[in-house]
Design a protein that fits this description.
Elements (H helix, E strand, L loop, with lengths): L2 E7 L12 H8 L3 E7 L12 E2 L9 E2 L1 H11 L8 E10 L2 H8 L3 E6 L7 H7 L2 E4 L9 H12 L9 H5 L18 E2 L2 E2 L9 H19 L1 H7 L8
Parallel strand pairs: 1-2, 1-6, 5-6, 5-7
Antiparallel strand pairs: 3-4, 8-9
Length: about 240
């Protein structure tokens, strides 16, 4: 089954680069997933192809119009389309690896990229959009966030990663950050690869990596650490 992504945006040309190279690009060429970009302005009805207007109640900036976006969404994902409708938004729920896996297991996604001050709330309510955030910061638009989401999803599609185990051992898959990595040369500027990693003792290597993952998570992401400990992990 091909994962079908449809992205509604004012800047379709932004998606022709990052998602056409490396794993995502090769998977797209192989037909593992498809990407359709939809120009929102094509659904405006005035001669200026307007997609926004001043905010009700006053204030700075402009707001994307519900009627224009509804026409674009209904054209791109008509009733019966099983794909979730996502809105990239700084006020959305944080994107997690668990949600990425859910999306990768599904038929695809319809992704709306906002601009300006945001989009009319009535569109969000009327079309049941799921708001998703990739972090606690503000971008100039939803396009970079949509690329991040798609990159995260596509790499989990069947056959995209050559080594499945590689994906299973990454940060967030077990609730922990990933352990440190090393490779040749054995010595670099006076720093050597930890001796346990060259010992050949796979049990000790696994224990060391797990210990390092716990240490890094406790130090750098106390939020993840607190969520991990009740599941039986962690000593401190």
């Amino acid at each position: 089954m091909t994962f079908r992504a449809t992205v509604l945006t004012l800047y379709p040309e932004m998606f022709s680069g990052p998602l056409d190279i490396s794993l995502a690009g090769r998977a797209r060429e192989a037909g593992t997933w498809s990407l359709e970009t939809v120009q929102i302005r094509d659904f405006a009805t005035d001669k200026h192809r307007s997609v926004d207007d001043t905010p009700a109640g006053g204030g700075a900036g402009m707001v994307m119009r519900a009627d224009v976006l509804a026409r674009a969404l209904d054209h791109s994902a008509p009733p019966g389309d099983p794909r979730p409708r996502l809105l990239m938004s700084p006020r959305g729920r944080p994107l997690t690896q668990a949600r990425v896996r859910e999306l990768a297991a599904g038929p695809g996604a319809v992704i709306l990229c906002g601009r300006f001050e945001g989009i009319d709330q009535r569109l969000i309510d009327a079309r049941g959009l799921e708001e998703i955030s990739i972090g606690d910061y503000i971008l100039s638009g939803g396009e970079p966030a949509a690329m991040v989401l798609l990159d995260a999803v596509v790499r989990l599609l069947p056959g995209v990663m050559g080594n499945v185990v590689s994906g299973e051992e990454e940060s967030f898959e077990s609730g922990l950050l990933e352990h440190p990595h090393y490779t040749r040369p054995k010595e670099f500027e006076g720093r050597e690869i930890p001796e346990v990693l060259t010992s050949g003792n796979h049990a000790k290597i696994a224990a060391w990596r797990h210990e390092q993952a716990e240490r890094l998570t406790a130090e750098r992401r106390p939020d993840l650490w607190q969520a991990y400990r009740p599941r039986g992990g962690g000593k401190a």
